[in-house]
Amino acid sequence: MTDGRVRRAVASDLPAFLVLYRHLRPHEPPPTPAAAERALAEILKSASTCIFVLEVPDGTLVASCGLTIIPTLGHGAEPFAVIENVVTHAEHRRRGHGAAVMRAACDAARAAGCYKLCLSTGSKEEATMRFYEAAGFKRNTKTYFEIRWDGSS
């Protein structure tokens, strides 16, 4: 079980995010400090997007995930939600931290009246897929397509 507490991100978390996100995409160059600050400020002022973090007793952020709630006219005009950027610091994995932030996101989506919660991942690792299934997500229920303007995959 996790030894930390889950909470919503705050502006002062930015330096910790820049460290934590290196464990999500280690080969991707980090954003400039100004770009990261602007992005986090936009997320924090949004009524529909938030980031859940898990902070261990020494104050270190070791896991996070983003949640966006999307209004829709379909499905009786009930919103749906998307989780992205689930990450746990490599030295803190297999302790329930990732599951804890995902539970918080799931609870928030349910409390917002979302009829479904989607999760997007670029991972092809079987262990990652089993982790998401253990959190309650189902594989192969919908087909997801994307366009990336930067040419990355």
What characteristics describe this protein?
153 residues, five-stranded mixed beta sheet, 4 helices
Commentary on this structure:
The longest helix is centred in the last third of the chain and has 15 residues, at 97-111. The chain has a five-stranded mixed beta sheet, with helices on both faces. β2 and β3 form a beta hairpin. The protein is of the alpha+beta class. The chain is 29% helix and 22% strand.
How is this structure best summarized?
The protein is of the alpha+beta class and 153 residues long. It contains 4 helices and 5 strands.
Q: What's the topology here?
A:
Layout: E1 5-8, H1 14-20, H2 33-45, E2 49-55, E3 61-70, E4 80-88, H3 97-111, E5 117-119, H4 126-134
Parallel strand pairs: 4-5
Antiparallel strand pairs: 1-2, 2-3, 3-4
Shape: globular
Major sheet strand order = 1-2-3-4-5
Give the overall average pLDDT.
90
The structural class is alpha+beta
Rg, Cα atoms, Å: 16 Å
Show unreliable segments: none
Spatial gap, N to C terminus: 34 Å
Helix content: 25-40%
- N-to-C series of helices and strands: EHHEEEHEH
